[in-house]
Specification:
This protein has 169 residues and is of the alpha+beta class. It is 41% helix and 16% strand. The two termini are 20 Å apart.
């Protein structure tokens, strides 16, 4: 649930919204309509907790996601799957697991054992954080968005703008 009470939004001295109050319940579908510069993006940033309102309160139960109009991706070599998993901060664990896998190929017994121990610990962390379920959920979501399975394994730079946008969703 999301509750907004007496919200005021300003950009500099310009008043965008004043005395805005509303409630969005679970399952509600909401659209924002307004002219350019009316404050739609500013409002969504406030609702997602990315910026603060000038006045008023926003109360949310649960997590609110925010997809910028023009998302900036630092690593265009990242796969679609890793980008999706990064929303849950699982991509870092996967990278460390891959590094441990490389260490397990070492000729040095001590280094190999150390890498195996690290991989085991990271695997348990990945599983505890719902990593395997998240991977299958990512595949299901991309399928529901009309993306072929192969997109999950492709680097982002090989995807069309529309495909990248759906990965961001």
């Amino acid at each position: 649930m999301l509750t907004v009470t007496d919200l005021e939004l300003r950009v500099g001295a310009r008043l965008l919204m004043d005395e805005v109050s509303f409630r969005v319940d679970r399952g509600d579908k909401v659209g924002l309509v307004g002219r350019n510069g009316a404050g739609k993006t500013t409002l969504t940033k406030v609702l997602a907790g990315r910026t603060q309102p000038t006045a008023g309160t926003v109360t949310a139960s649960g997590r609110i996601g925010y997809l910028p109009q023009d998302p900036k991706v630092d690593d265009m070599e990242q796969s679609g799957r890793d980008r999706i998993l990064s929303a849950r901060d699982l991509d870092q664990t996967i990278r460390r697991m891959r590094a441990a896998e490389e260490g397990m190929a070492s000729d040095d017994d001590a280094q190999r054992q150390k890498a195996m121990d690290r991989y085991s610990r990271l695997g348990a962390e990945f599983e505890a954080r719902g990593g395997y379920a998240a991977e299958s959920e990512a595949a299901r979501i991309t399928s529901n968005l009309g993306l072929p399975d192969r997109v999950l394994d492709q680097p982002l730079h090989t995807l069309s703008g529309g495909q990248r946008r759906r990965v961001e969703l």
